[in-house]
Amino acid sequence: MRPRISFERLPGPVPYGDAFEIQRARRDAVERGEAPDTVFLLEHAPVITLGRKADAAHVLAPPEKLKDLGVALVPSDRGGDVTYHGPGQMVAYPVLDLRRRRCSVQWYLRSLEEALIRLLADYGITADRLEGHTGVWVGNEKIAAVGVGIRQWVTFHGVALNVAPDWGHWSLIVPCGIRDRGLTSMARLLGHTPPMAEVMDRFERAFLGVFSENADAEASAGKERIHGG
Q1: Mean pLDDT across the chain, nearest whole number?
Q2: Which residue, among 111, 124, 134, has the nearest Cα to 209 in the 3D structure?
Q3: Domain that holds residue 114
């Protein structure tokens, strides 16, 4: 049986700490088997987050400037370096029990990227992976970041897709510590800004498509293993 996935949209913009506490509570409930796998969809209030491998030098603005601009600076236990979240960016935080799917970090990362690639293809945007980097790219420009946390094989943190972000805020950091690549957004590539609710709708469909296919493939492989002894 496929594990059920619930989607919840948080009204925002949502402060980073609030979203983390919501994830933490759901992550604990999923681990105990008291809640379904859940994907939270939201837009954040402006924030720069520092992942576990963050280099402080990749934050280019002093604290007083960030405060004046209303941009929070928050350490995070996700993977990766420095990144920015804010209005105009679709953030998805899947809380999934990989013990009921596949206990593989690489499989999970590639599945998240695939969901984003399918969503963008739905808009006529050809996106792909870039060798040596996580996330989703259009040519040499990054359109979506992926940074996850996994504890006891239950996931948290997730992905951020640039729909129509404030580019002035991006100039405050070296995104993901990558200096020789650019950034782009759906609005830049399409010439207009798609409604955020529509983008979230299409992400839900793409996400369910990818993870349902993966669940079916895992179930089929399991039957073959049992049959073959």
Answers
A1: 88
A2: 111
A3: 5-228
